[in-house]
Amino acid sequence: MVADDGVRLAEVIVHVGFAASNSAATRLIEQGSVRLDGDRVTDRGRRVGPDAGPFVLQVGKRKVVRVTPGSSTGQ
Question: Does some domain include residue 21?
């Protein structure tokens, strides 16, 4: 799932189950519903690198998860 330059944030949102598709995840990002470590993300092309440390991904008010890049579960 992770390439050398990282993976799109929209793909991470789909992978953790917060959106049904990449398109739905991209819409959430564009609407300003997505936060990384408390900071709003509006760049639809935002990527998460494989060497990034753990971060908190929040979509809306109630969907929150801690993501650790490089530790793939189920794949």
Answer: yes
Domain that holds residue 54: 7-67
Total of domains in the chain: 1
- pTM listed for this prediction: 0.84
pLDDT band of 74, cuts 50, 70, 90: very low
Name which of 61, 14, 66 is nearest 36 in CA terms.
66
At residue 65, does pLDDT exceed 70? Answer: yes
- The continuous run of DSSP H or E covering 12 comes out as helix 9-15
* CA 64 – CA 57 distance, rounded (Å): 6
